[in-house]
Amino acid sequence: MKLLITLVAICFVAGSVNAMAPGDLIKVGPGQSIQDAIDVADPGDTIEVKKGLYLESLWIDVDRLTLVSKGAIIDAEYQGPCIAVTADDVTISGFRLVNGVAGVVATMNFGGTFDADDFSFDGADDIRLIKNEAIACMPLGGFLVEGNDAVFEGNTVRGAGGFGIWYRSWGPESRTYITKNVVQHTKFELLTHGKGSDCPIPSGNGIDAAGGRVDIVGNRSENNEMGGIKLEIWSEGLFQKKQEGNKYHSRVTSNIASNNGAEKWFNFQADDLSEFDTNEDGIWVFDRYGLGVLISKNVANYNGDDGIKLIGLTFAVLGNKASWNNDDGIDAEVDDSRIDKNTVTHNTDDGLTGEQFEGIADNPGIGNLVSNNKADYNADEGIDFRGSFHYIYKNKATGNLQNGICVRDGSHVVIEANQADKNGHQGITNGTDMADILFNKAKGNGCGLGPDIAGEGGGSGYVDNWTGNQYGTGGRYATDRCEEP
Predict the structure, then answer these.
(1) Per-residue pLDDT tens for 43-68?
(2) What's the rounded Cα separation, in Å, for the pair 119 and 97?
(3) Average pLDDT of 400-424?
(4) What is the pTM of this model?
(5) For a designed S-S bond to 427, which of 316, 382, 419, 445 qualifies (C-beta 3.0 to 4.6 A apart)?
(6) What is the pLDDT of residue 463?
């Protein structure tokens, strides 16, 4: 029978800490220094911090260290980050971090107001941040990590300048999880990218991640001055989709990303930030390599730009809700993607808009499946798709100010079994060549089912196949606010 001995008899003399053998438990209480415990710790040790206020800015440079508490407050008094990490395989759990230039920073990629001359590292791998809270940390933000295989789980960031959660990895095999975090009220800042750099970048995104395989699941990112959630896939050279039994390379699922960008939208002039790559979308994802990204069951409402913005190849966009956004509900510049069972309503521009991604020179232009979506009461088109080889199937578009469903600027499109009622202009309009328009229903629109639009598509003189469609008042060739073919 193994005898478990908890080594709690650590000597504290005048606030100092003496460590035992590697793998030991070191306890710290109010009036003692957490940094002193770190300084004498060995790889594999655990430091347990009791509740209380600790006026410190910590530096963890010990690999395989666990720093754990159930509510201790670390107040850095803006002398540096609450916790800086320059080691691998570190776990930080259960702390409230206040008044730091960042809550936790494990990267020197950003310059800050603290002296980083002694930090000679590019990042930290295997960092786990669990159930921590970062309050009023600025200008960098809540949790910033550069390295492979990170975990951000159950953390809260409120009122931070810079980013709520910022993550970068450079290894294509890296697997990172950003789950069940709450990020609210991050503030717009212009940060220095790299120590001594004169290249400022805008921040203010709730969650901003880029790198290898990243799962962003079950988070709430709300009321941030810039975007809610941003993900950029950097896995250059890694093209296989299925790894570790997963169908998708990365996932952005079951998140709430609402009310982002609104304050910036109303209080900044458009040209103030024209030189920067800004983002005021609820969710923004870019994957140029076609690795397979699942965008599913997210809610993205009341954002300053698009609810969901997607750029790249091979997305599965399933069951999302995007309403009342200041631009489009879902804007998908994608190819070889499935867009299915989404609900997009009451947006200031289109409900669902898309075009084929052209970011790769040899992209063959496969087209997208756009099916079973509901696009109602948007201020422009319900569904507006451009390009070739799309299959527009069984969508419903009702009460939109312009066309219910508009497909244009391409060829060989199939528009089948859709229903478009009570839209202000045409129910369904096709501006592509050699299209099949089959078994659609349109009634009560400004002019029913619309004809081809002259001058649109790949050229004139091509014949479309119109079969089995049902019109309400005003048929295929109605002239009331519609053009003749």
Answers:
(1) 999 999 999 999 999 999 999 999 99
(2) 21
(3) 91
(4) 0.86
(5) 445
(6) 66
Of 216, 222, 367, residue with least CA distance to 294: 216
How far out from the chain centre does Cα 297 lie?
Answer: 13
Measured distance CA(203)–CA(225) in Å, rounded: 9
In a domain, 286, yes or no: no
What letter represents residue 93's amino acid?
S
CA of residue 171 relative to chain centroid, distance: 20
Q: Which two tokens stand for residue 53?
A: 């206020």
Alpha-carbon distance 257 to 250, whole Å?
Answer: 18
* Residue 144 identity (one-letter amino acid): L
- Written as six digits, the tokens of 124 are 């930290």
Q: What share of the chain is helix, strand, coil (3-state, %, to 5)?
A: 5, 40, 55
Q: How far is CA 62 from the centre of its chain?
A: 32
Extract long-range pairs of 360-365: CB within 8 Å, 24+ residues apart: 360/288, 360/313, 363/313, 363/335, 365/335, 365/389
Euclidean distance between CA atoms 333 and 314, whole angstroms: 11
Residue in the block written with tokens 């709450």:
182
Give the three-state DSSP class for 140.
Answer: coil
Say which residue, 165 or 242, is predicted with more confidence: 165
Is 410 part of any domain? yes
Distance CA 472, CA 464 (A): 21
The token duo for 251 is: 């996932």
Query: Rounded distance, CA 237 to CA 485, Å?
Result: 47
Residue range 73-129, pLDDT digits in tens: 999 998 889 999 999 999 999 999 999 989 999 976 554 444 444 444 457 899 999
For 330-377, write each residue's pLDDT tens digit: 999 999 999 999 999 999 999 999 998 876 655 567 899 999 999 999
Residue 198: its pLDDT value, please?
A: 46
pLDDT of 189 reads 60
Q: Phi and psi for 170 in degrees, rounded to 5?
A: -115, -5
Q: Could you list the residue range(s) of the whole structural domain that residue 445 is in?
A: 381-485
CB 137 within 8 A of CB 83: no
Of 40, 47, 113, 32, the closest CA to residue 79 belongs to 113
Residue 460 falls within a domain, yes or no? yes
Tell me, yes or no, whether 428 lies in a domain: yes
**What secondary structure letter does DSSP report for 318?**
E
Q: Length of the chain, please?
A: 485
Distance CA 356, CA 363 (A): 10
- The count of domains in the chain is 1
Q: Residue 406's Cα: distance from chain center in Å?
A: 28
The tally of CA atoms less than 13 A away on the side-chain side of residue 293 is 28
